[in-house]
Amino acid sequence: MAVSFKYYMDMQRYKLIVAYDGTDFDGWQRQPAGGSIEQALEAAFRRAFVSPVSLVSASRTDAGVHALGQVVLCKTELQLDPERLQRAWNDILPKSILIRSCSIVSDSFHPRHHVRSKTYYYHFFTKQPFPFTARYGWHCDRTIDLERLQVVLSGFVGEHDFRAFCKVRDVHGSTVRMIHSINLEYFKRFGMYRIVVTGPGFMRHMVRRLVGAAMFVACRPNLSVDHAQKVLLSRDSNNTLGKAPAHGLLLYKIRYKGD
C-alpha cells in the first residue's frame, strides 16, 4: 500500500546525539547480515515502542570506529516527549550505545546539511596501554619522532586535493577538502597521544590515512619529512603510506552553522 505524503509530513523529528563503542559493530551503516549501529538502534526502538523508526546519521563511521558526538535525525509517527523517548530507548539499547541527548527539530534540519565543522580524535600509544584503554587507541610499537609527526600533520592543514588519502571509489565529485586544524596532545595519566583533526567534512578513510601517512614518516628517519607532501601532490591513492587502525578513531563533535 502506498504511503501518503501527509504521513511523512506528520512524522515527528528528533535530533539525537549518540555515543558508541564501535568495537563490536560493523560500522554505522546498515549491513546485509546485520551488526551495524544503525540496526541496533532501530531494533531497540521497535522493542521499546513497538513502532518502526527512520534514522539518518551525520557520518557513516566505519567498523571499529567510535563516536562521542554522532548526530542522528530520528523520524517516527509517535509524538513522544524527548526525555521519555531518550530514557526508554536507552533502557533497551546495548551498553555500548548511549543516546546522550534528544530534542525536537523542525522539518528543515538534516544532519548532513549546513555542517560548520567535524572534529575527530585519533588516539595512539607508544607503550603498551592499560587494558581498559587499549581498545580505543593504536599501540604503535615503532619509535615515533613526535616533532616529525607534528610537522607532517601540519602540512595537511588548509585546502588540498586529498585524493591520495581517501577511498576513491566511494567519492562522488571533488576530492578537494579543507582542514581547519590538526593538533597533537598528550595525556600523561593514560600514556596516550591524541591527534585532533577539525574541518567541514572528510572522505571515507581520509583521517585514518592522513594519520597513517604521518606516522609512517615519523617512524622512519631515513625518509624526508616532506615525503607525505609529495604523495599528497601526486594524488595517487595507491600509495604505500598505509592507514591507521579503525579502533583509534573517534568522532568527537559536529558543529552546525548557526549553533
Describe it for me?
- With 259 residues, the protein is of the alpha+beta class.
- It has 2 domains: 5-104, Pseudouridine synthase I, catalytic domain, N-terminal subdomain (Alpha-Beta Plaits, 2-Layer Sandwich), CATH 3.30.70.580; 115-256, 2-Layer Sandwich (Alpha-Beta Plaits), CATH 3.30.70.660.
- It is built from 6 helices and 11 strands.
- The strands form 2 sheets. Strands 1, 2, 3, 4, 5, 6, 9, 10 and 11 form a 9-stranded mixed sheet that branches.
- The chain is globular, with a radius of gyration of 20 Å.
- 32% of the residues are buried.
Itemize the secondary structure elements and their pairings.
Elements (H helix, E strand, L loop, with lengths): L4 H6 L1 E9 L16 H13 L4 E4 L8 E11 L5 H11 L4 E8 L10 E11 L12 E2 L6 H9 L3 E4 L14 E4 L1 E7 L4 E8 L6 H13 L8 H8 L14 E8 L3
Parallel strand pairs: 3-11, 5-6
Antiparallel strand pairs: 1-3, 1-4, 2-3, 5-10, 5-11, 7-8, 9-10
Helix pairs in contact: 2-3, 4-5
